[in-house]
Amino acid sequence: MSLKEIYSKAKNGEDSLNSKNSNPKEVFLKEKESCEGPFYHIMGNINDSSLIEIDNLFAVADNLSIKNAHRHKKILLALSILGPLISVVFFLYFEGEIHGMILLCTILIGILYLIHRQSNRLDCHRKYLEYRVLAETLRAQFFLSIKGSKVQVAEIMPWFIKQGIPWIGEILKTLPLDEVKETKDIIYFWVFDQKAYHEGALLKAEAKRERQKKITKMAIYLTVSAYIIGLIFETIMYVHSPDVEAHLIRLGLKIIIGFMSVSTIFLESYYGKMSLSETINDHKRMIALYTKIGKDILKKGETEEILLYLANQFLIENSTWYAYQSKNKAELVF
């Protein structure tokens, strides 16, 4: 979804619907009615009506979370670029005495403000996180229910989620927990599939962290090089006083150093908001958890004790993810 589409939706009234003053549960239920695919389901070939209801609700929460994640990341990227860009433009105005740059700087500040304002109105960061938490708790409820367990996930959620996002528990408590007609093995759908997902996600997160490290190193090398060149230049000027346009060379060095400083602001405001270290550790823990559970199930079978242990650890990790991602809301950066 483009930023233009985001603006259009906000102007059409979605911003008032999703206002922070609105009830999050009511917002979700209204968005649920108008939600359009694609939908991804936990399992296929489900016949029990209670499981179908859980699965359908999961598909909606998953869909809405993904859509809001895409919006949030686009807005985050736009703010992360515009903030440092404004600093560069103002630097050119102030140091380069390019007077027209002050007008461009004013326009960019206006655009930055509008994007940030729309971000708050769309509330996509909150919805991305809370809808994902809802989807994952529904996943846990589905797998417990399909094994015939009467445990209600709303009762075993971590206290942090119960208190922080109470509407999720309210949604979960409305779900029917009827006895299923036919239980199914879930090791492939929950344990192996989720392990494979985290292994793939781990590779992507590590690739992003390596990209961040390379850009950071390049910025450091260029900054140090600019300082060394500046030192050599000033030494030559002091010793020989050559007939050159010294102010232009100094301006060029200032621009290089300023640009490198601004690039570090971008890295912090964009890659820093991804919590890559926490995300990587999160994926590693989940891979280890699913590896352990897979071995336990192969030895002892899909016992209720093992599945409840998995559900509890799964919900704890889900709340941990929510906790560190909550800090990554898109903000104004200059």
Number of domains: 1
- Overall residue-averaged pLDDT value: 86
Low-confidence stretches: 9-19
> Could you tell me how far the N terminus lies from the C terminus, measured between alpha carbons in angstroms?
25 Å
Strand content: under 5%
Structural class: mainly alpha
The biggest sheet, with number of strands, parallel, antiparallel or mixed sense and barrel status, is: none
Radius of gyration using CA atoms only: 26 Å
Counting DSSP E segments of at least 2 residues, the number of strands comes to: 0
Helix content: over 70%
How are helices and strands ordered from N to C? Answer: HHHHHHHHHHHH
Shape: elongated
Tally of contiguous helical segments: 12
